[in-house]
User: What shape does this take?
Amino acid sequence: MNTKKKISLIIVIFEIIALIVVGFFAYRTVDSLLTKHEQEELAAAKKAEEEEKLKQEELKSWNLILINPWNAVPDGYEVEIVEAERGFEVDARIYDAFAQMMADCRAAGYSPLLIAGHRSHDAQQRLYDKATNKADTALPYHSEHEIGLAVDIVDSGNSSLTDAQANTPAQQWLMKNCQNYGFILRYPKDKVEITGIVYEPWHYRYVGVKHAKKIMKKGICLEEYLENY
Assistant: This one.
C-alpha cells in the first residue's frame, strides 16, 4: 500500500472515530436532558416518600398514641410521671404545657380545678369495679388516664361531671384556648359513636400544639384526625 493510500485510510479512520465521538456526545447530551427530567421526577417522588415516612413516624409518636375501647395501652408501656396539682400526676413531658394552661386560665380570672390525671392500671380496675354504669367507664388498659396524657378539669364553682360543666366560665375558657397549649377536648358531644366514650366536657388530652390546633379548628376527634392526617 503506497503512502497516498495509507494517508487516505488514516483520514477515513479518523473521520469514523470523529463521527463516533460526535454521536456519543450527542447521545449523552440528549440522555442528560432526559436524565435531568427523570431526576426531577425521582427527587419529587423521593421527597414525597420521605414526607410520608416522617408522617407515619409522627403518627406513632408518644403524644398521638390512640387509646379507646378498641385500642389498649401497649404492653410494657412506661411513663415518667410527675405531680401536677393537688396530688394528681401527669406524664412529665406534658407538665409544663399543663401548668401554663392552668396558670393562664387563672390569670384570666377563672378557677379551673384538676380532679384527675394519671391513673395506674390497678386504679382503673378499681374504678371500673366500683362503677354503677360500666358502659360509661373505661376498662383497664383502655383509659387515656393510664398513659398520663389526659386530665380532667372542672370549674371550682361547679364540679359536677355533667353536660352542664360545658357552660361554666373556666370550661368555656379551656375549650376556647386548650389547643394553644397542645390539648384537645377529647370527647366531643357529636363524636360519641366514633370515640366510644360519652360526652365529657372536662376531659382534655395532650397531643401537641400543631396537632391540637388542627383538630380543634376542624372540629374533629382524635380518631378522625389519625385516620385522615
The chain has two domains: 1-60, 63-228. The chain has seven helices and six strands. The radius of gyration is 32 Å.
